[in-house]
Specification:
Elements lengths: L1 E8 L2 E10 L5 E4 L5 E6 L4 H10 L1 H11 L16 E4 L2 E9 L3 E6 L2 E6 L5 H32 L7 E5 L6 E3 L4 E5 L7 H14 L7 H10 L3 H11 L2
Parallel strand pairs: 2-4, 6-8, 9-11
Antiparallel strand pairs: 1-2, 3-4, 5-6, 7-8, 10-11
Helix pairs in contact: 3-4, 4-5, 4-6
Length: 236
């Protein structure tokens, strides 16, 4: 039986699910998608469970902050010539040439595309975002192949994965073991992309942010903290 609750921690409202089972001790899990679940002994009263959870609210809040800290880099907003775009950590200028339609391509320090005069800005946006998605799918596929070999040596299963644009997260791992990577992550340097990929791969084996998770992450990617710090400085 599952019960839903919402507890206050300062100005924050924390939603959680309590489930009872055959276990001796209470366990709290903050999942990578920011869901909070509580596994409680069958004999514990609801009041006792919630009292124990309230004592752990500072710990829960810290882990939710960690899960929610991946604020993606901005995409272009105006889609006009001269606007700065990012790709693999480098800055490029968007150059829109009026004339025959040409798919976006990198040319020197420019991301160049051709569109007929009078083309709506929405069409430019779709073309640029489609280019980002194609690049993202290719780079993520290679990263997952490379780092999947590393993580499998530590007992991490083979992932299924997808790419989509997200507004708050670099990546996520569902309870069913499906990794989703943010298209916008392709704007970050490659070593930061690798950090997010390995982070999510490790969640396939350890779904929370426990000591066991960070031990696994450290074995798979010893310099993960340095890569994470770089990514945090890039986030806005």
């Amino acid at each position: 039986m599952r019960n839903e609750h919402e507890l206050a921690f300062g100005s924050r409202r924390i939603r959680l699910t309590v489930q009872r089972g055959k276990r001796a001790r209470l366990r709290i899990v903050v999942a990578p998608d920011a869901r909070v679940s509580v596994d409680a002994p069958a004999h514990a009263t609801e009041a006792d469970v919630l009292a124990a959870v309230r004592q752990r609210l500072p710990w829960i809040a810290r882990h939710l902050d960690e899960v929610e800290q991946f604020h993606p880099l901005p995409m272009p907003t105006r889609y006009v010539s001269g606007e700065t775009v990012l790709y693999l950590g480098r800055q490029y200028r968007l150059r829109i040439d009026p004339g025959p339609r040409k798919a976006p391509r990198l040319l020197g320090r420019f991301l160049e595309l051709g569109v007929p005069r009078g083309t709506p800005r929405e069409s430019v946006r779709r073309a640029v975002e489609a280019w980002y998605r194609r690049r993202a799918e290719d780079i993520f596929r290679r990263c997952l192949a490379r780092w999947g070999e590393v993580t499998r040596r530590h007992g991490v299963p083979e992932p299924t994965w997808a790419v989509r644009t997200m507004t708050r997260r670099w990546g996520s791992c569902s309870p069913r073991g499906r990794i989703t990577l943010n298209t916008r992550l392709v704007q970050a340097p490659l070593h930061c992309i690798e950090y997010v990929v390995v982070h999510e791969l490790c969640h396939l084996k350890t779904p929370d942010h426990s000591k066991a998770f960070y031990s696994l992450l450290g074995r798979c990617l010893p310099d993960w903290q340095q890569r994470k710090d770089v990514l945090a400085r890039l986030a806005v």
